[in-house]
TrEMBL record:
Residues 129-152 are annotated as: Disordered. GO terms for molecular function: DNA binding. PANTHER family: HTH-TYPE TRANSCRIPTIONAL REGULATOR YODB, TRANSCRIPTIONAL REGULATOR, MARR FAMILY. PROSITE patterns: HTH_HXLR (PS51118). The keyword Transcription applies. Keywords: DNA-binding, Transcription, Transcription regulation. Pfam families: HxlR (PF01638). Residues 14-112 form the HTH hxlR-type domain. It comes from Crossiella cryophila. This is DNA-binding HxlR family transcriptional regulator. The keyword Kinase does not apply.
Amino acid sequence: MTMPTGFDAYDPACPARLVLEHLTSRWGVLALAALRERTYRFSELRRRVNGVSEKVLAQTLQTLERDGLVLRTAYPEVPPRVEYRLTASGREAAELLSGLVDWVERRMPRIMAEHRRYDARIAAGDGPAPAAAEAGFGATGAGRGAAGTPPR
């Protein structure tokens, strides 16, 4: 379906898919949600996001800056000081993503219980869900057929 904007994220050639990928990557979600709290210096943001490498955070911030979601401000000081904050579009996206982060955090006990039920069912030999079995994801390995070959 074509959107009124002329972009259709369901079309594999649509550039909106890349922006969705940037927004919904693990580090993109967490960086935007953190920046919703306040302006951060790079090292502060890295500590807040906790677990992301310096290189990956820098790449994530550059990508989000290119998408117009993050503003990077470098101050001509010694030592250099660089701060990151959200643009108006970034605040809008972060608001939506923060809702998702909050939802996941609130639902984690239930999600973890579902994981345990699923894992127990698989361990009991009940097999994967029908959709996964049809796609070739069975007990022989993800994405592998019965002989260990990729599904056709």
